[in-house]
């Protein structure tokens, strides 16, 4: 995983930004997983991801709406939370259950149809974190429906947009 740092001058102002490189991760069958390096401490990123009220801030898929989020501000295993969503232009709410939360390492939740979303964090240097987001439908009640709807590709695109936006959130100077 690498990053390209650009520096340019526009109208007398010097601007720097990082173009982060996504990496495809092998998380097993029926998973879509990508990672990126983010210039932020693990704890900062964990605080963001473990708070479902902040999920609209980091969603790159365009499906999480910034309305009516309910549940705790810090997830623990077994916690339920509800977020407003939109899919194919149709708004709805979904209640998910946190299945695994390890401080500064993992946040995972399960959708009512059984598939899971997992975020993994690993410190790779001072103030630098490898962030991996995984869509795991190996536990889905109807994995064939996910495949027929092409959700692997749609979710891969959303994960990539989310991770790049997250990296740029902390890398733009």
Describe the structure.
The structure is a single chain. The chain contains 4 helices and 10 strands. The chain has 173 residues and is an alpha+beta fold. The strands form 2 sheets. An 8-stranded antiparallel beta sheet has the order 3-4-10-9-8-7-6-5. The protein has a two-stranded antiparallel sheet with strand order 1-2. β6 and β7 form a beta hairpin. The N terminus is likely disordered. InterPro entries: Polyketide_cyclase/dehydratase (IPR019587), START-like_dom_sf (IPR023393).
Short account of what is shown:
The protein is of the alpha+beta class.
Give the SSE layout.
Elements (H helix, E strand, L loop, with lengths): L2 E8 L2 E8 L2 E2 L6 E8 L3 H8 L5 H4 L5 E7 L9 E8 L2 E13 L3 E5 L5 E10 L2 E9 L6 H6 L2 H21 L2
Antiparallel strand pairs: 1-2, 3-4, 4-10, 5-6, 6-7, 7-8, 8-9, 9-10
Q: What labels describe this entry?
A:
single chain; 173 residues; alpha+beta; Alpha-D-Glucose-1,6-Bisphosphate, Chain A, domain 4; eight-stranded antiparallel sheet; two-stranded antiparallel sheet; disordered N terminus; Polyketide_cyclase/dehydratase; START-like_dom_sf; Polyketide cyclase / dehydrase and lipid transport
At the fourth CATH level, what is the homologous superfamily?
Answer: START domain
| Strand ordering within the main sheet | 3-4-10-9-8-7-6-5
**What does the radius of gyration come to?**
17 Å
What helical percentage do the residues reach? 10-25%
Number of strands: 10
Major sheet attributes? 8 strands, antiparallel
What is the end-to-end distance? 21 Å
Annotated CATH topology: Alpha-D-Glucose-1,6-Bisphosphate, Chain A, domain 4
Structural class: alpha+beta
Uncertain spans: 1-8
Count of helical regions: 4
Total separate domains: 1
Q: Average pLDDT, to the nearest integer?
A: 88
CATH top level class name: Alpha Beta
Q: Which CATH architecture is right? A: 2-Layer Sandwich
SSE pattern, N- to C-terminal: EEEEHHEEEEEEHH
Range of strand content: over 45%
Shape field: globular
InterPro entries: Polyketide_cyclase/dehydratase (IPR019587), START-like_dom_sf (IPR023393)
Protein name: Polyketide cyclase / dehydrase and lipid transport
Pfam families: Polyketide_cyc2 (PF10604)
């Amino acid at each position: 995983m690498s990053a390209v740092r650009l520096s340019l001058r526009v109208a007398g102002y010097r601007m720097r930004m990082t173009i982060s490189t996504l990496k495809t991760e092998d998380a097993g069958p029926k998973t879509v997983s990508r990672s990126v390096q983010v210039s932020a401490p693990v704890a900062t990123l964990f605080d963001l991801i473990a708070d479902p009220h902040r999920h609209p801030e980091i969603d790159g898929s365009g499906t999480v709406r910034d309305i009516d989020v309910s549940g705790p501000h810090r997830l623990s295993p077994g916690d339920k939370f509800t977020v407003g969503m939109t899919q194919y232009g149709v708004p709805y709410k979904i209640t998910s259950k946190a299945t695994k939360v390890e401080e500064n390492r993992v946040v995972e939740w399960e959708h009512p149809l059984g598939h899971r979303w997992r975020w993994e964090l690993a410190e790779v240097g001072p103030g630098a974190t490898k962030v991996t987001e995984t869509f795991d439908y190996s536990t889905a009640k109807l994995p064939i429906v996910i495949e027929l709807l092409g959700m692997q590709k749609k979710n891969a695109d959303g994960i990539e947009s989310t991770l790049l936006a997250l990296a740029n959130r902390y890398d733009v100077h």
